Amino acid sequence: MTNDLSELNVPYRLLLGPGPSLVHPRVYRAMTAPVIGYLDPVFIQLLDDTQRPLRTVFRTENDFTMAISGTGTAGMEAAIYNVVEPGDTVVVCQNGYFAVRMADMVRRCGGEVVLVEADWGKLIEPERVEAALKDAGRVKVVAIVHGETSTGVLQPLEEISRIAHEHGALLLADAVTSLAGCELRIDDWGIDVCYSGTQKCLSAPPGMAPLTMSAQAMEAVAKRSEPVRSWYVDVSMLQNYWGGGNARAYHHTPPMTMLYALREGLRIVLEEGLETRIVRHLRNARAFWTGVEAMGLTLHVEEKHRLTPLTTVRVPEGIDEMALRQGLLLEHNIEIGRGFGNLEGQVWRIGLMGYGSSEENVFALLYALETQLAKQKFGRDRGAGVAAAARAFAAD
Amino acid sequence: MTNDLSELNVPYRLLLGPGPSLVHPRVYRAMTAPVIGYLDPVFIQLLDDTQRPLRTVFRTENDFTMAISGTGTAGMEAAIYNVVEPGDTVVVCQNGYFAVRMADMVRRCGGEVVLVEADWGKLIEPERVEAALKDAGRVKVVAIVHGETSTGVLQPLEEISRIAHEHGALLLADAVTSLAGCELRIDDWGIDVCYSGTQKCLSAPPGMAPLTMSAQAMEAVAKRSEPVRSWYVDVSMLQNYWGGGNARAYHHTPPMTMLYALREGLRIVLEEGLETRIVRHLRNARAFWTGVEAMGLTLHVEEKHRLTPLTTVRVPEGIDEMALRQGLLLEHNIEIGRGFGNLEGQVWRIGLMGYGSSEENVFALLYALETQLAKQKFGRDRGAGVAAAARAFAAD
């Protein structure tokens, strides 16, 4: 048997793309804690330990608040598959890639999709949702993305939640990029199903997907006439393990190491304070926005609707966007993301998330962007971006 | 905001249950490598790097050989969901818990289940499979468990594979506990779909599920008339990322840290050599079997059908099995598993898997078992178990 596998050798990258984001050093350390059994009393305690801060971060009292053993997409699958069954009508608000994915999942559950569409980079207007609900007859779920990672839009949810509930529908929201980086209030806003991922503003590696479901959503699960189409993410079985008191029913072996990472990530959020963390994301994003605009670049989303952890910057006419990203990665060790779907080739996606959202990273990134743009003969005065960001921080 | 989360403090346990098994120290170290982006050229190289040794360990040339971003159950879901669609008939060979789960998943895919049953602890006889195939009409898949973690049976697959193929069916096998611990030959035995987990004989934490599919299985996926019912584990999309050459299509953000762990686990297997590793599992299991029998305990499975990484020991009459497990955990820091399903309360499940399968652990466990049994007034001469194991090793 030949062994051609060399020693694992992974470079450090400053991860300022759409995710995974920079992992907090304490989270790496937490992951070296020994793996123990899924019924070990210590592990059961850690499960309980993790549910409490998850409720805090989601701002919810929902009893069913846990983490799915997969990445954010598994969280989306858990959210949709548990509440949708064949014949259900779901209004999917589609103004970006992740809502396209939602619609695909609804169809795989046998649900009927009613689309409410908007341009990629614009908001979903509540009136359009209301009109769709009036037209569609009985609607089980309204599905929407809170922080659209593909477009950089932060979608207000309160009004749409009110409308959904008036029509007897559950509100399901994707908070993969917004949780612990933006204001998100599950109970106050009446969100019935909400999921996220560990690899964005929680500063842990990808591998678990926080999920919370309201009593109404759990009632809908209990009333299903068919089993959930996925076994792996069936919450009626998962709750017997996560919420099982002393009698924990085996469902699957959870990824202990990822739970340790999530727990440490949550601990760091609580130490900083959720409000402080949200303000930090806003402050760093604003300075970054000021800096890129001073460099002559344009932002894709109107300021009042911008997602602070993820910014979409328009690719200027004549710029080779891939060459710029390659230059950032190979010469500055900085990763940013490309646009995709309807925005392919049109934007860069830049993340200032969790541990990665810092004043220092704003300057590192602006300097590197300016350097790469200058190579392509784009830009005004050198230093315009970093200077503008410095003034923005000073004025803030 | 209150922060009542204490520092993560996880005790070391000698994990000798059905899994998770002991993680190799080098795997813990690999997991501290920095998380990088899923399109980073270094990460793409690591994906390719991991597929090669996976093929070696599975003993296959299958092009589609990768790892699902979830635990072993997600691997089962990927295996079944991709090849089964509504109306398909699946013969499920059911002689333990994991085949019960398989049948449940087949039904959630809209498939019809034909059961071939045997007692928990006995083999599935090929003639019974043949009879079922003759009766059932067109069968798409025969599903079977190679190493049944709930019973401790190692199921021979060659004959059943031949029969399945004669009837135009695919063979799907669960190798969660057998991969890298028992002989398993995907290509020689004609297994079309096979999955495993990282947390058994690969000595990594739970979190990824190796999966391999033959060209025939991939053809069945390509010919589907309906999309796979799970989006998360849809291999037609996953292969565009894992096997996409330079053009990698985004599907979901994979758990980088878990991939590092899997890669390091595979590296360790290749260093030891697969054959040497399999012999080590056999040698340690045999000595353990000799030891427990010398203590007056009975093994649940006939010797020639025993799974070496996982042994089922009968709970003697009058013994409080839970008290024994609690004593092992709290007084010796050793975890073993309870029986469940049809074997609830009847057996203990003891794993000597991967890094955990060592001479030293055999003695640690036999001594601890003897000590706990003596507390419940069971046993012959003290030291009988360890002495018998020592003689067995010497004679081997």
Provide structural commentary.
The structure is a homodimer of 396-residue chains. Chain A folds into two domains: 25-270, Type I PLP-dependent aspartate aminotransferase-like (Major domain) (Aspartate Aminotransferase, domain 2, 3-Layer(aba) Sandwich); 274-395, Aspartate Aminotransferase, domain 1, CATH 3.90.1150.10. In chain A, helix 5 (126-136) packs parallel to helix 6 and helix 12 crosses helix 13. The radius of gyration of chain A is 21 Å and the shape is globular. In chain A, the strands form four sheets. Chain A has a seven-stranded mixed beta sheet, with helices on both faces. Chain A has 396 residues and is α/β, with parallel strands linked by helices. The termini of chain A are far apart. The first copy, chain A, has helices at 25-30, 41-58, 72-83, 97-108, 126-136, 158-166, 186-189, 215-222, 235-242, 256-272, 274-294, 321-332, 359-375, 384-395, and strands at 14-15, 64-68, 89-94, 112-117, 141-145, 147-148, 153-154, 170-174, 193-195, 209-213, 310-314, 334-335, 337-338, 347-351. Chain A contains 14 helices and 14 strands. In chain A, strand 13 and strand 14 form a beta hairpin. The longest helix of chain A has 21 residues, at 274-294. The mean pLDDT of chain A is 96.
Main pleated-sheet profile of chain A: 7 strands, mixed
Q: What is the C-level CATH assignment of the largest domain in chain A?
A: Alpha Beta
Radius of gyration of chain A: 21 Å
Superfamily (CATH H level) name of the largest domain in chain A: Type I PLP-dependent aspartate aminotransferase-like (Major domain)
Task: Give the averaged pLDDT of chain A, no decimals.
Answer: 96
Q: Class by helix and strand content of chain A?
A: alpha/beta
Q: Helix coverage percent of residues of chain A?
A: 40-55%
Relative strand content of chain A: 5-15%
Categorize the overall geometry of chain A. globular
How do the helices and strands follow one another from N- to C-terminus of chain A?
Answer: EHHEHEHEHEEEHEHEEHHHHEHEEEHH
From the 3D structure, determine the CATH topology of the largest domain in chain A: Aspartate Aminotransferase, domain 2
Which two chains touch over the largest interface? Answer: A-B, 84 and 83 residues
- Architecture per CATH nomenclature, i.e. the level-2 architecture of the largest domain in chain A: 3-Layer(aba) Sandwich
Number of domains as seen in the coordinates of chain A: 2
Query: Ends of chain A: how far apart?
Result: 62 Å
Secondary structure tally: strands of chain A = 14
**Total DSSP helices of chain A:** 14
Oligomer: homodimer
Major sheet of chain A: order of its strands? 2-10-9-8-5-3-4
Query: Which residues of chain A sit in consecutive blocks of at least 5 with pLDDT less than 50?
Result: none
